[in-house]
Design a protein that fits this description.
Order of helices and strands: EEEEHEEHHEEHEEHH
Number of strands: 10
Shape: globular
Strand order of the largest sheet: 3-9-10-6-5-7
Number of domains: 1
Strand content: 25-35%
């Protein structure tokens, strides 16, 4: 019996696979939803089945994780979303400007490549868990091509009251609409 061997691009390198990998994500995935999860003693979380379905049929998957630059949470990017973000930054950064280079460093600070195991778990770096004050409970929030990982109390207390959040959203959308109309 002859078995087919496939070469699969995985974490930036080609590896052998005994099965064909379908639906490998090449474009940005829009993760949707808010999910409670547990962090085990080793610092692993199980990605919700809805997020794993969005990723496709891949035995293991690479992500980039980092501390959010503005919020008190972690950001888990797919490789495609990470590369898109880095591309957007490179488009506006002057490589000969010290302030621009520091902004780029600030965005990348603490970023680490991590893998999803066949069971759908990812190991979160202990230093990042500590920075985001995440203990045994976490909240995962789908946010375009990334997943935000929050300590639940910090998430529910972020952004002010419902009234403040609604007002901020309304004002932001009005500003964006006005800017778009000016262009």
């Amino acid at each position: 019996m002859v078995k087919k061997i496939f070469f699969v691009l995985y974490c930036g390198k080609f590896v052998l696979s005994l099965r064909r990998v379908k639906n490998v994500q090449m474009t940005m995935i829009d993760f949707i939803g808010e999910y409670d999860c547990k962090v085990d003693a080793k610092g692993r979380i199980l990605l919700p089945i809805q997020f794993r379905k969005e990723l496709g049929e891949v035995e293991a998957f690479c992500f980039v994780i980092k501390k959010h630059i503005f919020a008190h949470c972690l950001e888990l990017y797919t490789k495609a979303a990470w590369e898109e973000q880095i591309g957007l930054i490179k488009d506006v950064i002057d490589p000969f400007n010290e302030e621009d280079l520091q902004a780029q460093r600030d965005f990348r600070r603490g970023s680490t490549i991590i893998e999803c195991d066949p069971a759908g778990r990812v190991l979160l770096p202990a230093r990042l868990l500590k920075q985001a004050e995440i203990g045994t409970d976490a909240l995962l929030l789908g946010s375009e091509g990334r997943i935000e990982i929050w300590q639940p109390d910090l998430y529910f207390n972020s952004g002010g009251s419902d009234k403040e959040r609604k007002e901020r959203f309304k004002n932001t959308m009005a500003k964006r609409k006005a800017k778009k109309n000016d262009e």
